[in-house]
Automatic annotation (TrEMBL):
Coiled coil: none
Organism listed in the record: Niabella yanshanensis
This protein's name: Phosphodiester glycosidase family protein
Pfam families reported for this sequence: NAGPA
UniProt-listed PANTHER family: N-ACETYLGLUCOSAMINE-1-PHOSPHODIESTER ALPHA-N-ACETYLGLUCOSAMINIDASE
Signal peptide positions on this chain: 1-19
GO molecular function: hydrolase activity, acting on glycosyl bonds
Length: 282
């Protein structure tokens, strides 16, 4: 009996390892179509349409921004009004932009601490126990040089008040931090397939802004364990999940919305949801 249990365990481990190997090879060998946005920035897209990544159809779009003095990242936010990523982009005229953190659908405004150019736009809305929510335990911060960094909750209840950078956007959960995968709970938000928005930073300081489409037969979405693998395959040493679902949107100059937002329940680029803020670069 012990031998049988050990054999079954070995077969299971082998199956999991084989699946991971197949997925990584499938991802790396995909014919990613790159389009130059700027001298140091490119848009990449690929549609895994034969259930050949994580046994699912998946449409992935991401922008790779190489570190340079040429580009500066920013946050655009409204204290209460909700706007589409396209609407924000029309005002700030970026090279690319993604939707930001979690927000109040009914009353507007982010439910997570957000600061723009030194001005606090929204405060954390916390539970009665005053503990931060899962999307308030990490942050994207942007210093005066316009370079984004990912920071991790230090355990203090009011940790966001000690983040001195002029631009701050709390978000999460954190997927990878300083080359280490973060521990994710087995709650449905993490394990279920959804459209996802994510930002990552590579060893060289390049920034990746990524969207995975979902809730459609053409693209079924990812869970956060799969998203972590994708960001690691792209070379990220730190990565953070943003608000996803119907909010997920990637806007690129000269293209507009390049993914397939879900609010109109159609496989097109017109189903944007209004959001509280965006992360963008110029």
């Amino acid at each position: 009996m012990k031998f049988l249990i050990a054999l079954l365990g070995l077969l299971l481990a082998t199956t999991i390892t084989s699946a991971q190997y197949y997925d990584s090879v499938s991802f790396a060998s995909a014919d990613w179509k790159g389009k130059k946005i700027d001298r140091k920035a490119k848009l990449y897209r690929y549609h895994f349409n034969n259930k050949n990544l994580f046994k699912a159809n998946l449409h992935i779009s991401y922008v790779l921004v190489k570190r340079s003095r040429r580009h500066q990242f920013h946050i655009a936010a409204e204290p209460q009004k909700l706007r589409t990523v396209s609407d924000y982009a029309g005002e700030v005229r970026p090279l690319a932009a993604i939707n930001g953190n979690f927000f109040d659908v009914k009353n507007g405004g982010s439910v997570d601490f957000t600061k723009v150019q030194g001005k606090v736009i929204n405060l954390n809305r916390k539970e009665s126990n005053e503990k931060p929510d899962f999307h308030q335990k990490a942050a994207v911060v942007i210093g005066a040089n316009g370079v984004p960094e990912i920071k991790k909750w230090d355990g203090l209840v009011n940790w966001e008040e000690w983040l001195k950078e002029p631009d701050v956007m709390l978000n999460g959960p954190l997927l990878i931090f300083n080359r280490q995968d973060e521990t994710l709970d087995s709650v449905s938000f993490n394990t279920a397939r959804h459209p996802r928005t994510c930002m990552g930073v590579t060893k060289k300081g390049h920034v990746i802004m990524l969207v995975v489409d979902g809730r459609n037969a053409n693209s079924q979405g990812m869970n956060l364990f799969e998203l972590t693998k994708v960001m690691r395959w792209l070379g990220c040493v730190s990565a953070i999940n943003f608000d996803g679902g119907g909010s997920s949107a990637l806007w690129v100059k000269g293209e507009g919305i390049v993914n397939y937002p879900t609010d109109n329940r159609k496989w097109d680029h017109k189903g944007e949801r209004k959001v509280a803020n965006i992360l963008y670069f110029k």
